[in-house]
Amino acid sequence: MIILTFLNICSISCILYSFTAKHQYVLIEIFSEAWTFMKIEVAEEYVIQSSLQKNYTQYLQMYYQVEQGKQYDLDIYIQPEDTYKINQVEKRDCPNNCSQKGLCQKLECQCFEFIAGDRCQYDIEPIFDRSTYYIEMIPFQSKIIAIYLQQDDIVDDQQQIRNVRFTVSPSINATIYFLFPFEIPYKSLKNSKLVFDGIIDQEGQEIDFSNKFESYHLRSANYSFVFMLQNPYFLTLNFTIKSELIDNDNQFQDFILVIILSIVSFIILLVIIYIVKKRCQYMQEKKQKGNQSLNSQKGLLHLMGIVDPAKDQECIICLDLLDQKPCRITPCKHTLHEVCLNQWLQKQKNCPICREAFLDEEGYPKYVKTRNQTTTFLNHHISQYGIQ
Question: pLDDT tens digit string along 147-177?
Fold first, then answer.
């Protein structure tokens, strides 16, 4: 299939190049004034050995390696056939001698200032202090422009990085790179510098380049947006390019959001600290009240005298006979089991029989004098159990 296809092509347009190889390479070059599709194919005995093609360019070259002293009959297909050169050369060199706009070093073109491209074929048009720019381009032409903006304009008063908005009429294919001050375009047009690649139209394209921006020590330093433009139409057109810096609302909104979240978080933290503190105070007060209640209960119990109950009398609480367990007498002269009375005092501070209060109006326990108690004994218990 490859042989038949090449024969069909060569029947229309093909160059027969017969020679005895004197050097290591055959250099094939195509030149064109228009921006067009270019292709080179080299075949030996109707078998394609090498092929190269490129869309929308003005120059294409191929180095075809040969063996010195050997006779060759090459079939070379060239598209278009406007202008071409076929020569034998000793070594590989930079394409088109860097268009006489740069130096060839290690087979790569080192372009002069405001020149770019793999063969230094683009003149970079610098644009300073202009928000509108007009450019004429022939069909499928590629062109490079550099729009320069000062650091003072890029950074606002809140030290936020503004966005940049570009509009083009009519629409155009654009690849945009963001370069720092004193960066050379031909060395710096890399993916790490890329900020946009696509179509820009009259509705415009807003670009956020803050993640690539780094401040420079000179506030007046110029940063550049380097455009690689291509006219996608079959007509020669005049394009209008406009640029403007706009405040980065997203950054400002993010900044405000961070502040609000920080304040809310701080308030929530204060509320949590307040709740925990109040909870600890409540638990401590509850514990103290419990201890005071327990002490008061024990104090009241011990202030009630121990007595020997009469036989055949029942405890009103448990209904067992009083003489089966130790008993105490209340200030109202009722005898109860000590254990039952203790349990009763955990809930009530009055007599379970007559409901007389065990505490007087001032909150002091009523004194019971028995054969086991004295006034000194009473005072001792009041002090010991902290009865109020």
Answer: 999 999 999 888 889 999 999 999 999 999 9
Place of tokens 């609000």: 260
> Cα angle vertex 118, ends 116, 121, to 5°?
55
Go through 18-35 and write b for each residue having 16 or more CB atoms within 10 A of its CB, e for each that does not: eeebeeebbbbbbebeeb
Residue 60 has a pLDDT of 94
Q: End of a domain among 186, 219, 247?
A: 247
118 lies in a domain?
Answer: no
Residues 215 and 237 both lie in one domain: yes
Q: Which residues are bridge partners to 106 per DSSP? A: none
The total number of structural domains that make up the chain: 3
Any domain includes 106: no
pLDDT tier at 274, thresholds 50, 70, 90: very high
Contact 218, 154 (CB under 8 A): no
Quick one: pLDDT band at residue 127, thresholds 50, 70, 90? very high
Cut 0.70: pTM above it? no
Q: What is the pLDDT of residues 175-189, one digit of tens each?
A: 999 999 988 877 777
**Final residue belonging to a domain, choices 247, 269, 290:** 247
Judge contact between 357 and 330, C-beta under 8 A. no
Q: CA 153 → CA 73, 96, 115, 205, 360, distances in Å? A: 63, 40, 26, 19, 86
Does residue 37 share a domain with residue 63?
Answer: yes
Q: Are 177 and 211 in contact, with CB atoms under 8 Å apart?
A: no
Whether 169 is covered by a domain: the verdict is yes
3-state secondary structure of 3: helix
For 343, the domain range is 255-385
